[in-house]
């Protein structure tokens, strides 16, 4: 369980996040949504203590995250962060083995268990055959799957993902988020695509200008009046086979005719 | 058990139960094979290299001389006194210094490439060689009257190297946290300024020997090896290797990126600062004892990565051993290729290293 309360983050006197909070219960998938620059990634970074908030408290399983040191933190929380690619050649196996680092002592060799965990994690994301490829030669979708495999090898109960569907083909976007949902970990995921958020998150938190606008179920948070206020776009909710999806139109366009049934109430 | 619990269990359990271990035995064997092979090559190279030079001495004779020296036995008459003094006073310190300097340069290269995530990073990126040559040029030109000897010349080179390293570090973190790009920028600009200063000093001086002495710091040489400099260099290099090996796991993460490091509970800025200080001290000591020998720290880490991959726990010993073997043999070439004239070592390492670098570039591109 992750609980963040009254988080404020400031850079040089300017507040980027102002008293924001969120709660992710055990096994829940919470989506962080909001326009560019609304503070989604910043808030996410405070959850694994990569960023120290100027005020507020983050609890991971009822313990302040700032009290968790190095390996202990990494054994509880696994992260898929946005990263500029390195120039150094790194193999896929080495990339996933990084997830085993928090489980090893400083000078200890990689054990058979470590390698088993890596093989199994790669197999689960359908990337076992890529083990000896160079990471930089993979496609965007393969890279994201390898990074998720690293979090699996890390065997943490909490998972934080920063826009994991970036640069992915539509099919991989859905595969990845479905897989994340099936893991059973307590997950917080930053997403740009509101339809993906509606479909795969049990709870959503909507941010704008560093503050929380709304939090709750996708039905509550993806309300047209809220989206118009935050994103400046008209959203028409439709239910397709019981799944909430949004059809967008700009303010100066005529309303789109849609074939799905409108959401009641 | 709730469905949620079983999902969480399913997430953790299959990792232990599966039979696929990614060929664990082959991977472990592969790393050890490289380390053992390189160690053997180094152990054979040292006595052979001691025998090679303008005056060639059989490896067997070298071993006899060493054995007699180490056991303190009286002259058995199996070798001449001149051979003995060449081996003990000239060659052994020189070869041992070469092994230590080669290992140290390779270690510094591995560390700096991981810090900056830049494949062109090398020990002299921090401006330390330029710092050493500037300060030693200054002390040759202005300190000659004060009777500065080789020992204090080495000391001023070390001081110059360290000062430059610290200055680059401070420059890179002015105003905000140090990033890889800022470090590279600071190192390159400080290096150019110091280089210009050195040239200015030589240009302004009337001493015809000054230029030649400064060449030593810019091209490097193992000819000044003494028992003391060998000892100090070995201690510094072994210390550096131990510390870097201790940091091998965080270095793995840092080589991928700051975000990855933070995600694994590592503070990247703190680690980068510690590794920088250790590297600056190490390179400072290397430059003080042997000048600025180029290409070793740039090329050897890449060769080592091709052999054993990028996991620093294995990469560190393999790169150190490769660097040691490489420099011992490069120095053999330096003193035999145009004997009795001796080539500056930096010229040999550049001539050997540059084609290696081309081959690596081709290899890296082919794998893309």
Automatic annotation (TrEMBL), chain A:
PANTHER family: ABC TRANSPORTER ATP-BINDING PROTEIN (PTHR42794:SF2), HEMIN IMPORT ATP-BINDING PROTEIN HMUV (PTHR42794). It comes from Glutamicibacter nicotianae (Arthrobacter nicotianae). SMART domains: AAA. This is ABC transporter ATPase. Coiled coil: none annotated. The lineage of its organism: Bacteria, Bacillati, Actinomycetota, Actinomycetes, Micrococcales. Residues 2-234 form the ABC transporter domain. The keyword Zinc does not apply. Keywords: ATP-binding, Nucleotide-binding.
TrEMBL record, chain B:
It is a multi-pass membrane protein. PANTHER family: FERRIC ENTEROBACTIN TRANSPORT SYSTEM PERMEASE PROTEIN, PERMEASE OF ABC TRANSPORTER-RELATED. Coiled coil: none annotated. InterPro entries: ABC_BtuC-like (IPR037294), ABC_transptr_permease_BtuC (IPR000522). The keyword Membrane applies. The keyword Nucleus does not apply. Pfam families: FecCD (PF01032). Its main location: membrane. It is found in: Cell membrane. This is ABC transporter permease. CDD domains: TM_ABC_iron-siderophores_like. Keywords: Cell membrane, Membrane, Transmembrane, Transmembrane helix, Transport. Belongs to the binding-protein-dependent transport system permease family. FecCD subfamily. The chain crosses the membrane at residues 31-57, 95-112, 124-145, 151-171, 183-205, 225-247, 275-302, 314-334, 343-361.
């Amino acid at each position: 369980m992750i609980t963040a309360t009254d988080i404020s983050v400031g850079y040089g006197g300017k507040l980027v996040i102002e008293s924001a909070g969120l709660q992710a219960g055990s096994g829940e998938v919470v989506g962080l949504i909001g326009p560019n620059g609304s503070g989604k990634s910043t808030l996410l970074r405070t959850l694994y203590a990569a960023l120290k908030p100027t005020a507020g408290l983050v609890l991971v399983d009822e313990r302040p995250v700032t009290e968790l040191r190095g390996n202990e933190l990494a054994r509880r929380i696994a992260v898929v962060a946005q990263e500029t690619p390195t120039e150094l050649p790194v193999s896929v196996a080495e990339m996933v083995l990084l997830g085993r680092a928090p489980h090893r002592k400083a000078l200890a060799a990689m054990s058979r268990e470590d390698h088993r965990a890596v093989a199994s994690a790669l197999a689960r994301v359908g990337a076992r055959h890529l083990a000896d490829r160079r990471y930089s030669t993979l496609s965007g979708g393969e890279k994201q799957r390898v990074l998720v495999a690293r979090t699996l090898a890390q065997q943490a109960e909490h998972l934080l993902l920063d826009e994991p569907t970036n640069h992915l083909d539509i099919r991989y976007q859905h595969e990845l988020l479905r897989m994340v949902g099936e893991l059973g970990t307590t997950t917080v995921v930053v997403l740009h695509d509101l339809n993906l958020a509606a479909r795969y998150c049990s709870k959503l938190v909507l941010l704008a200008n560093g503050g929380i606008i709304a939090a709750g179920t996708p039905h509550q948070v993806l309300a047209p009046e809220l989206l118009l206020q935050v994103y400046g776009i008209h959203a028409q909710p439709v239910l397709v086979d019981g799944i909430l999806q949004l059809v967008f139109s700009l303010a100066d366009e005529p309303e789109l005719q849609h074939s799905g049934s409108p959401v009641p109430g | 058990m709730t469905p949620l619990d079983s999902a969480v269990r399913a997430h953790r359990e299959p990792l232990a139960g599966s039979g696929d271990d990614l060929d664990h035995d082959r991977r472990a064997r592969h790393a050890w094979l490289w380390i053992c092979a390189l160690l053997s090559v180094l152990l054979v190279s040292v006595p052979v290299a001691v025998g090679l030079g303008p005056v060639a001495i059989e490896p067997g004779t070298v071993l006899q001389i060493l054995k007699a020296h180490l056991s303190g036995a009286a002259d058995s008459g199996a070798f001449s006194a001149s051979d003995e003094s060449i081996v003990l006073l000239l060659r052994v310190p020189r070869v041992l210094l070469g092994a230590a300097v080669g290992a140290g340069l390779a270690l510094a290269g591995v560390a700096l490439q991981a810090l900056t995530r830049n494949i062109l990073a090398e020990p002299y990126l921090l401006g330390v060689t330029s710092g050493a040559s500037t300060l030693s040029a200054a002390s040759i030109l202005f300190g000659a009257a004060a009777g500065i000897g080789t020992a204090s010349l080495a000391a001023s080179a070390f001081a110059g190297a360290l000062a430059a390293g610290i200055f680059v570090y401070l420059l890179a973190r002015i105003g905000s946290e140090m990033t890889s790009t800022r470090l590279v920028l600071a190192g390159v600009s400080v290096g150019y300024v110091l280089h210009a200063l050195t040239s200015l000093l030589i240009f302004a001086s009337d001493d015809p020997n000054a230029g030649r002495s400064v060449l030593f710091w810019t091209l490097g040489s193992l000819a000044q090896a003494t028992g003391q400099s060998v000892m100090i260099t070995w201690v510094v290099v072994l210390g550096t290797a131990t510390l870097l090996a201790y940091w091998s796991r965080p270095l793995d993460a840092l080589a991928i990126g700051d975000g990855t490091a933070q995600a694994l509970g590592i503070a990247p800025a703190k680690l980068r600062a510690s590794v920088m200080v250790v590297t600056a001290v190490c390179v400072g000591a290397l430059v003080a004892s042997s000048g600025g020998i180029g290409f070793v720290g740039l090329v050897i880490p890449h060769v080592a990565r091709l052999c054993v991959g990028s996991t620093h726990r294995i990469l560190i010993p393999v790169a150190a051993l490769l660097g040691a073997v490489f420099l011992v043999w490069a120095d053999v070439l330096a003193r035999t290729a145009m004997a009795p004239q001796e080539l500056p070592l930096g010229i040999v390492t550049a001539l050997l290293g540059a084609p290696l670098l081309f081959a690596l570039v081709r290899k890296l591109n082919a794998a893309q």
